[in-house]
Amino acid sequence: MYTDLDNLFQKLARSKFRSKFRLNYDDQLFAEMKGPEVLRQHAHDLIIKRLAPEEPLKDGKQTPVKGHPVFVAQHATGCCCRGCLLKWHDIPKHRELSDEEVEYIVRVLLEWIAKNLQKEPRKRRIKKGETLPLL
Fold first, then answer.
1. Model's pTM, two decimal places?
2. What highest taxon heads this organism's lineage (predicted)?
3. With contact defined as beta carbons under 8 Å apart, do 76 and 82 qualify?
4. d(C-alpha 79, C-alpha 104), whole Å
5. Contact 80, 61 (CB under 8 A)
6. What is the DSSP string of 10-61?
7. Is residue 135 pLDDT above 60, yes or no?
8. Among 38, 51, 101, 119, which one has the highest count of C-beta atoms within 10 angstroms of its own C-beta?
């Protein structure tokens, strides 16, 4: 596990696959509306349910690519499956994650989301027939 997240993020930035992930407009809006404490709880719950077990259900395919800022952050940071946790964070497979490891992963995800919220959001694509809510 990395104690210096800046070093981790520099390493991830050199990966063509990991560096392409960004929060879209809806993800940024959701993250800003919910705030860091709700995101922390969501991240913690998702990690406990999907990654923490000794043998996660559908490991390698359990994390959607979109639909929640935490899912996007998981792929961007190599926290999406146990294989990626081993490769990017040196967290071994085939055993339950410790509380310390869960908290580390949550910290990585929230840090990545916070950094992404500082970037210009992607424009929202309007689907045919969709009406936008009045603000």
1. 0.87
2. Bacteria
3. no
4. 10
5. no
6. HHHHT-TTGGG----HHHHHHHHHHHHHHHHHHHHHHHHHHTSSSS-TTTTS
7. no
8. 51
Q: How far is 101 from 30, CA to CA, in rounded Å? A: 26
- Please say whether the beta carbons of 73 and 132 come within 8 A: no
pLDDT at 20: 94
Distance between CA atoms of 104 and 92, rounded to whole angstroms? 14
- pLDDT at residue 52, rounded to an integer: 97
Residue 67 contacts residue 109 (beta carbons within 8 Å): no
pLDDT in tens, 48-81: 999 999 999 989 888 999 999 999 999 999 999 9
Rounded distance, CA 116 to CA 17, Å?
A: 16
- Nearest 5 degrees, angle CA 105-CA 95-CA 6? 25
